[in-house]
UniProtKB/TrEMBL annotation, chains A, B, C:
Protein name stated in the entry: beta-galactosidase
Gene3D superfamilies, sorted: 3.40.50.880, Glycosidases, Golgi alpha-mannosidase II
Protein family per UniProt: Belongs to the glycosyl hydrolase 42 family.
Domain Beta-galactosidase trimerisation, chain residue ranges per copy: 395-598
Keywords (A to Z) from UniProt: Glutamine amidotransferase, Glycosidase, Hydrolase, Metal-binding, Transferase, Zinc
Top-level EC class: hydrolase
Top-level lineage group: Archaea
Membrane-spanning ranges: none
GO BP of this protein: galactose metabolic process
Length: 668, 668, 668
C-alpha cells in the first residue's frame, strides 16, 4: 500500500524542483503523477517539441527512489491547435461551440482530434519508452468532466449514424426496435438520425438512450486508441485512467476493459456538497460521507475485481464545491486508510503544491504556494508510514449497478426526486451499516461467489439476464431486487408483459400499478410486524407465486402488496416495490444477510464504519465523537487502539466477527 | 351523454384490433378518436399513401356500432418532410431551430407547411368523404402545446409585417397607436417590425401585445385552412379541435368561431401540479381541483354557448406532471359526471391502452399494455352506463374572460405573483362555492340574459365596451368589476384619463394610486363591518359618484377607499380595487348574487360541488370524506343516494334550491 | 441646494408644455433634464434633423427662470441606424445579437457607432452651443445598464487584442503575467486572446479580470469621445453622467475623471428589493435603506471629492423592481434631505409626468398621466423650499473601495454568499451607525487627511499600495483591514508570499488557512472579552509581529488567531480575518474610531441616521416610529423640531457632538 502525489514541475522554477522532490521522498511518497495538462508546454508550436524539462523532472524523481506515472496530455489541446483545426471543438445541443479557455474542449469523435491524439501520444510514449522511472500511464484526465461525454457536433452526428447502422443493420430494424410509430417518428435512413437537439417537447426515450450509449462508447473507443499505442510501445507499462466520483455519463466498466488498473479521484468534502440529495452535516463538511466515497471505491474495485488506486486524493480545502471548509484535523490521513480498507493499493494526493496561476489557485496542495507544508502534508506522511501490504478484499455481497439503468431512469425519472444514485445508495448504506464488504458490479458479472446479491433496480431487462438471476437463486443465492425492475426492454420500450417482465417468474408477482409521490403525501408500508416510511416511488404488487411480506398502509394503495418473497430451488428472492426509507432498507438488508449467513456487525452509528481486508479490520471514524472498539480476548492493534477518536482510524488484526464498535456515551 | 376513447391501432398488431374494439363496445363506449399523429404511417414517403390499416380499423369500429372521430395528422410532420423542407420548423427568439424528434415542430406561418397541410388534409378527407362511420374531424392536436403558438422564424417575421400593415395601413399610424416615441423606438416601415428577439432590456409592451395577438391569429388562420377543406369535402361532418386546460397563448374563442363543436383535454391531477399557484393537497393529487377543471369546462362551453366535449379525459396516472400519483378509486368516473354537470355531452378517455413505445409509456390507458383492464376501465364503463341525455346548462351568471387581458397583464404583471388565472380563479371559486353555474365568456358577448356579471379584470378597455357595460347595468344588471380594470387602451398604452378610464363614469370613482406588495407586507381592508385580508395588488380609490363600501386598513393606504359601488339605472355596479382573499371574494360575490336574486347554496366545503343541469342536480365529492345531501320532501335519485362517499357522485332530479349538502361530522 | 426634474416634452402635445413648465416653476424647481432618448425624434431619418421642438421646450424653461441639462441621445440609436449598420449591436458570449427594441443596444467598441456618436453629439452640441439656458450636458444615460458593459462581438475581440498588446507589448509577457502554463492555456499571439465565450469549465481568472478591465476601459474611452466634443464646442458647460446604484461592471472613478460633476440615479425602494442580500423589511419597502443609498452617495461624492447630484430621484412607485409598494408619506422629501446631508447639491426627480407609452408606464412621475399632481409633487415642492446653500461635507473617515477588487472577488467568490458589496456594506453600516461621514474612495487616493481608514478588502495588491498604506499608518493613521486582503497580485494570480502578501510586514501576520462556510456551520470568534458571530469567510492567522486581539472559538479553527493588531510608528493597524457579523463590525469600528479620536454618536437605531454638513446636522428617520433629538443647551432648528416623526427629517445648526437621538419608548 503506497502513497504518492500529483506534481506539476512546469508551474515552478527549475531550481525549486530538487527541494520539492526531496520533500516528497522524506514524506515517504512512492509515486509521482505528472504531465496531464502539459501539451502547450511540450509542444509550444506545431512540431516544436520540448521534453527536456520533463526528462529532468523524471530523472530527479527516479534519483530519489520514486516512480513516475505519466499522463497523455490530451485533455487540453493548445490554442495553436484549436486555431488550426477548430472542428475539434465540442458543440452544445443548440450548436453553441465550447470554446478554448478551460479544458476538455475537444470532441471524442473528431477525426482531426484522433489524428492529433495519435501523433502526440506516440511522440510522448516513444520519448519515455525505455525510461526506467516511468511505471505507467494515465490516459488523458477525467474523461467526461464538465459534461463533455455528450457532444452534438457534425462529427458526432456522422458517427452516431454509423454506430446505429452497425448495431441495427437496417433502418427498419431501428424503427422497430425503438418503436418510432409514435408521433410519426419513423426514420427514412440512418443519416436522418441526429444527435438529440432542441425540440418543442421531450425526446423519444429510445433515441436518447441510444445517444447516451453511443456517447459513452465514443469515449471507450477514443481511450482504446490511446491504450493501444501505449501498449504497442511498451507492453510492461501499467495503463490506467482516473475516473470521477458518482460520474453518470460514462460507463466506467466499459472503459476499464482496456485498462490494467482502475483509478479514481476522491474529494470527500466536495462530494457531500455537490453530488448528493441531502444537505451536508457539519461533520460531513469536515470529512465527507464514508458511504458516498465507499460506493465509488467499490465501483472502481468492482470494475476489474482487483485493487484500485485513488489517483487524486483531496489534500485540504478545494476550489470547486460551493463552499471550502477546512477538513477536520487528520481527515487527509483518514481518507487514505478508508481507501485501503476498501481495497485501494495506492493513494496519490492532488496536488503537491498550491498553484499560483489559473483556475485552481483556491485548491490546496500538500505544500502551500510558498513551499511551506500545508495541513495535508503531515497526514500524508503519517499515512505513508502506517500503511502496509495487503491482499485483496473478499466481499460476500454484490450490489448490481448499471450505467444503462442510470441513463434510462434519468431519461424518464417520473418524479423530480427519482435519482438513481440516491436510490441505489439507500441499499448500499444499509449494507455498509452492517460492516459488510460489497462488490459493486454490473449485472452481467458472474455472481457465483456471492452469498447475497442486492439489485436496487434492474430497469432495463432482457431474458438472458433474467435467466442468469434465476440460476443464481436456484443455486442457493439470496437475492434482493428493488423497485422499477423489469420495467423496460433494452431499447427503453415497455415489454409486452407487465413489470417485472422477464423477472415475473422468478419474483412470482407482477406490478399492478406504480405511482410517484411528492413529499406531502403520507407513504407507509408494513413489513415484518412493523410500520415503515417509504418515499417517492410505490408499486402495488399482485403476488401469484410469492409470499406477501409487506403491504401498503396509506393512500389508494392501502392493503396492496408492497414486498414479496419466494423460495426458488435452494435460494430465495425478495422484491421490494417501494423506495425504502432508511429503516426499511435496514430491515430488508438485515433479513437478507441473515438468511445468507453473512457475518455482520450490529447497525453502526452514522459516520462510523468498519471494514475487513486480508485478515485486518479497519475502524474509520468520520465523526466528531470518539468510539470504543471491543475485541473479546484482546486485539492486536496495528494502528491506533481501542478508543478511536474524532476523525481517527484504528487497524487491528482479525475479522469482522471479532469486533464490536460503540459510540461512547450512547444509550445502551 | 356519451363516453368514448382515443385509440391508436397503428401501435398494435392488427390481430389485436378486433378484441380491443369488442372490449370498447362492451364498455358502452360510443366514439373512438384516431389518427392524430399518424402522418408517418399514412404517408411513409412522399406520395406513397397507406390508408388500408385505417380503413380496416374504422370498419371494425363501425361494425361494433361505434362512430369515429378522425384527426388531421398535421401535429407531426414526418422526418422525410422535415428533411425536404426544413424551413417549416419553428424558431426560438434567439434563432435556435426547434428540431425534429418530438411533436408540433412546425411554424403556423410557413407557406411550405400550409401547402403540405392542404395536401395531406385534402387527401385524407377525400379518402373518408363517404365513410358512414366517420362522424367528424378533430383538426390537428392541441394547438400551441409545448409553447408553440409563438414562433420567431423569417416566415413569421414577414407575416407579422403584413399583419401589421393590414391593421394599421400606414406605419405612422402604428407609431402613433403604440407610442414609439419612447426610447427612440419609431419604426420607419412595417418591414422593420420584427418578432421580439433578445434585447438588452424589456420589450415595448405594445409591440409584445401585437406579437401575441398576431401569433394567436396565425393559428386561427391555419386552423381555418383545415376547416374549410373539411367542410368543402363533406359539410355534414362535425368539425372540432381539442383545446388544453388553462392554456394561455391562443385565443380559444377566436379558434372556436370556425368549429362546430369545442372540445378539450382534461387532466385533473396533472393540472393541480403544473398550472396552479398553490401546492396540491393530498386530496387534489388524488382527484384534482373541481374549480380548476370547472373553469375550463365553463370556458369551452362558453366559447360557442353550447355543450362541449372532453376529447381527452385522464384515465389514470399520467406521464407529464412532476409526480404521478394514482387517482383515487372512482375518480375517473367522478370526472365524467363532473364534466356532464358542467355541460359536457361526451367524455372520451385518453387512451385505450398504455403505449409500449415512445414518449408516453408512462401514461395509463383504460387497458394496460398487456391488454388487461386498468383502473380506469371499470370507471369508464360505469359512467357510460349511468349517463343519460340532457339539455344544455342554463347559467344565471357570466364571468368575463379575455385572452388579450391575460397577455397584457402577463407582459406587465408588476408583481411576480400577479397571475391572471389565479386572480380570475379567486372570483370563479367564490361563485362555484355557492353552487351557481357560470358562463365564462369574452367581454364582447351579449350579457342580456345574465342576472349578474363578474369581470375579474378588464385591463384593456375601449369606449365601446364601457358603453355596453353601462347599458347592461342601466338595464338592471348586477356587475362586479375587479382590480386593474381600465388601466390600458387596446394598444397597451395608458389612456389620457386615470384608471378605470372609460369605466370611470359607470364606476363613479378613479384610482388615485396602485401598488403591488410582497407577502411580508400586511394587507387588510374593511368591508361590510368585517376586516379581510387581500393580496398582491391594491388600488386607492377616489369616489366622486359612488358609495365607499370598503376601506384600506393597513400601510400608507390606511383610510383610503378600496371597494365602491353605485346604482346606475335599474342596476348596480361594484368595483373592488384589491385582489381579494378568499373570504373577501366570498363576501363580494355573496352580496352580488343576493342583490341579483340568483338562487345559491350556502358556501360549500372545499372540494364538494353541486351543479344544476336541465332539471337535475349533481353532487360531486372530490374529497376523502363523505357528505350528506338533504332534500326536504324527498329526492328522486338517478345515481347514488343521500350519502355521497369519498370521490363519489350523486345525481337527482330537482334544482339547486332543493338541495342542502353538508360534510358529515362537521360542526353545525 | 436645488431641486429639479427630468422632462420628456416629446411625449406630450406641444400645447401642454407651457402649463407643465409653469407648474415646475411653481414647485420651486431649478433644473430640467431632457433629451436622453430623443435621437429618433431629433433625426427621424438619416440627415433629416428636427430640433425645433427641443428649441421651444428649452426656451419655455428659460422663460420660467430654470436651466436645462441636455443629454446626448446615444443610449438609443434609432431603427433606421440599426438597419443601416447592424454591426453596432452588442453580442452575448454565445454570439446571440442583442437586437433593437429596448435601449442600450450598441457596442462601445464599434467603430461604426463611434462615428455615428461623433456625428450626433457634434450636431446637437453645435445647435445649443450658445443657448443661455443650457447649463450643461449629461453624456448618454446610465452606461452599462441592463448588463451592457461587457460585449462579445467581433469589434470587441479586435479591441481587446489591441488593448492587451498596449498593456503587455509582447505576448510572452502576457503569458507570464497571467500564468497561462496551466491547462495549456498559452497564447501564441494577441489576436488569439478573445472575449471569454462559452467553455466546458470555468475561465482563467486572469483572462476574465483582463476582460472586465478592458470592458470598463472601453466605456471610459467612449465617454471621453463625447466629453471632448462637448468641451471643444463650449468649455463653460458642466459635463456629467448619471451613474447607477451599486453598479458593478463599470469603474465609476475612471469615468469620473473626464467629468465636471458626478451624478447618479437613486431609487431607494427598488434597491432594497433587487440589489441586496437581505429581504426588505416593511419599513424599507416604504422608504429604502439609508445606508444602502448612503454608500452610493458617498461613492459618487468620493469620486471627485466634491458635491454630487442625484440626477434621477425616485418620485413614487416605480416599474422595475419585483414589487411596487407606494413609498411612505413624505419619503420623497426625506430622500432629498438625505442626499443633501451626504453632500448632494441638487436632486432632480425622475420624471415629471407618468408616461403613457412604452416600457415605463408603471413608473410614477411628480404628476400623473392626466397632468394632476401625484404623491411626490408636494414632497418635491417642500424639499425645494426647505433646502439651502451649504459648503461640502468634511469626512473624518475613508472607506477604500475598488472596482477591480469587486471584479476579482466576483470571479472567484469561493462561496456563493461572498458578495463584495454586502461584505463592504458591513463595515460601512457600522460607521454610519455612529453618525460618522465617510468618503468612499479608491485605494490609490491620498489618505493624509483622514483620521481613520477602513479597507474592507484589498484583494489585489501590489508593493506600491502596501508602501502607501504603511506610510499612512506610520504617520499616525488608524487603519482597519478586512479579510481576503493581499490574496492576489494585480493580474489575479497568487503572489509568492502567503496572504496578505505585500501587507504582511505592516499587519505583522500571515494567513495560515482560509475557509468558506455555509450557514449551517457554527462560526464564532472571541474579541475584547466578548464572543461574536461571523459569517461565510474565515482566516486562521499566524501573528509573528502583532498582538492577537481575537481568536476563533469554533470548528477546526478553534484557538487560532482571527483578529490582530499592531502599532506602527504613530499609528496602528488592525487586521480582521473573518467577515464580521453586525455586532463584531460595530465593536471593531467603534474601537477604531475611538483610538482615532473621531467624534461619534452612540450606535443609532436601524433606519435612523444623522449626518453633519457645514455646521448643520441632519436627523433622517427612515422608520415608522418617531425619534427624539436632544441638544443640551438648546437647538436652532432649520427644518422640523426635536421630535422627528415617521419618515420625517430634522435639520439644525450644530455639529455631530451636540446631538443625541433616541427612539421614543425604547428601553433606556
Amino acid at each position: 500500500m503506497t502513497v504518492g502525489v500529483c506534481y506539476f514541475p512546469e508551474h515552478w522554477p527549475r531550481q525549486r524542483w530538487e527541494r520539492d522532490i526531496e520533500q516528497m521522498a522524506e514524506a515517504g511518497l512512492e509515486y509521482v503523477r505528472m504531465a496531464e495538462f502539459s501539451w502547450g508546454r511540450i509542444e509550444p508550436e506545431r512540431g516544436q517539441f520540448d521534453f527536456e524539462w520533463l526528462d529532468e523532472a523524471i530523472e530527479l524523481i527516479g534519483d530519489h527512489g520514486m516512480e513516475v506515472i505519466l499522463c497523455t496530455p490530451t485533455a487540453t489541446p493548445p490554442k495553436w491547435l484549436v486555431d488550426e483545426r477548430p472542428e475539434i471543438l465540442q458543440e452544445d445541443p443548440d450548436g453553441t461551440v465550447r470554446e478554448f479557455g478551460s479544458r476538455r474542449h475537444y470532441c471524442f469523435n473528431s477525426p482531426a482530434y484522433r489524428e492529433e491524439t495519435e501523433r502526440i501520444v506516440t511522440r510522448m510514449a516513444e520519448r519515455y519508452a525505455d525510461n526506467p522511472h516511468v511505471a505507467g500511464w494515465q490516459t488523458d484526465n477525467e474523461y467526461g468532466c464538465h459534461e463533455t461525454v455528450r457532444c452534438y457536433c457534425a462529427d458526432c452526428s456522422n458517427a452516431f449514424s454509423e454506430w446505429l447502422a452497425d448495431r441495427h443493420g437496417d433502418v427498419d430494424a431501428l424503427n422497430e426496435a425503438w418503436g418510432t410509430t409514435f408521433w410519426s417518428q419513423q426514420y427514412p435512413d440512418f443519416e436522418a438520425v441526429e444527435p438529440p437537439g432542441p425540440t418543442p417537447a421531450e425526446h423519444h426515450p429510445s433515441r436518447l438512450l441510444a445517444y447516451y450509449r453511443f456517447a459513452s462508447d465514443s469515449v471507450v473507443e477514443y481511450n482504446r486508441l490511446q491504450t493501444e499505442i501505449l501498449r504497442e510501445i511498451n507492453d510492461d507499462w501499467l495503463v490506467t485512467h482516473n475516473f470521477m466520483g458518482h460520474f453518470s455519463t460514462l460507463d466506467a466498466y466499459d472503459v476499464a476493459g482496456d485498462l490494467d488498473l482502475v483509478s479514481w479521484d476522491s474529494y470527500p468534502t466536495g462530494f457531500v456538497q455537490d453530488r448528493r440529495e441531502a444537505e451536508a452535516t457539519v461533520e460531513e463538511l469536515r470529512a465527507g460521507d464514508p458511504d458516498q466515497v465507499g460506493l465509488n471505491h467499490d465501483i472502481y474495485r468492482g470494475a476489474l475485481e482487483q485493487p484500485f488506486w485513488v489517483m487524486e486524493q483531496q489534500p485540504g480545502d478545494v476550489n470547486w464545491p460551493p463552499h471550502a471548509p477546512q477538513p477536520a484535523d487528520g481527515a487527509m490521513r483518514l481518507w487514505a486508510h478508508h481507501a485501503v480498507a476498501h481495497g485501494g493499493d495506492a493513494v496519490l494526493y492532488f496536488r503537491w503544491r498550491r498553484c499560483r496561476q489559473g483556475q485552481e489557485q483556491y485548491h490546496a496542495g500538500l505544500r502551500k504556494q510558498d513551499g511551506s507544508p500545508d495541513r495535508g502534508y503531515a497526514d500524508a506522511s503519517t499515512a505513508a508510514e502506517e500503511l502496509f501490504d495487503l491482499g485483496p478484499v473478499d466481499a460476500p455481497v454484490a450490489l448490481l449497478h448499471s450505467y444503462e439503468n442510470l441513463w434510462a431512469t434519468n431519461i424518464q425519472p417520473h418524479a423530480p426526486e427519482f435519482d438513481y444514485w440516491t436510490h441505489a445508495g439507500t441499499y448500499y448504506r444499509a449494507l455498509r451499516r452492517r460492516g459488510v464488504q460489497v462488490d459493486v458490479v454490473p449485472p452481467e458479472r458472474d455472481l457465483d461467489g456471492y452469498a447475497a446479491v442486492v439489485a436496487p433496480t434492474l430497469y432495463l431487462l432482457d431474458d438472458a439476464l433474467a435467466t442468469r438471476l434465476e440460476a443464481y437463486v436456484e443455486d442457493g443465492g439470496q437475492l434482493l431486487i428493488g423497485a422499477r425492475s423489469g420495467e423496460k426492454d433494452p431499447y427503453n420500450k415497455l415489454p409486452d408483459a407487465l413489470q417485472p417482465g422477464p423477472l415475473a417468474g422468478l419474483v412470482g408477482a407482477t406490478v399492478a400499478q406504480h405511482e410517484s409521490l411528492p413529499e406531502q403525501v403520507p407513504t407507509r408500508v408494513g413489513y415484518g410486524g412493523d410500520e415503515y416510511e417509504y418515499r417517492t416511488w410505490a408499486e402495488w404488487l399482485d403476488a401469484d407465486d410469492a409470499t406477501v411480506q409487506g403491504r401498503h398502509r396509506s393512500g389508494p394503495a392501502d392493503g396492496q402488496a408492497a414486498v414479496v418473497d419466494a423460495e426458488r430451488g435452494r435460494g430465495r428472492v425478495t422484491y421490494c416495490g417501494v423506495w425504502p426509507g432508511r429503516e426499511l432498507a435496514d430491515a430488508l438488508v438485515g433479513d437478507l444477510l441473515e438468511r445468507a449467513g453473512v457475518t455482520t456487525h450490529a447497525p453502526l452509528p452514522d459516520g462510523v464504519r468498519i471494514a475487513e481486508r486480508d485478515g485486518h479490520v479497519w475502524v474509520t471514524n468520520f465523526t466528531d465523537a470518539p468510539v470504543s472498539v471491543d475485541v473479546p480476548g484482546g486485539a492486536a492493534w496495528i494502528v491506533g487502539h481501542e478508543r478511536v477518536g474524532a476523525y481517527d482510524v484504528g487497524v487491528l488484526e482479525g475479522t469482522l466477527g471479532d469486533v464490536t464498535v460503540t459510540r461512547e456515551n450512547s444509550e445502551p
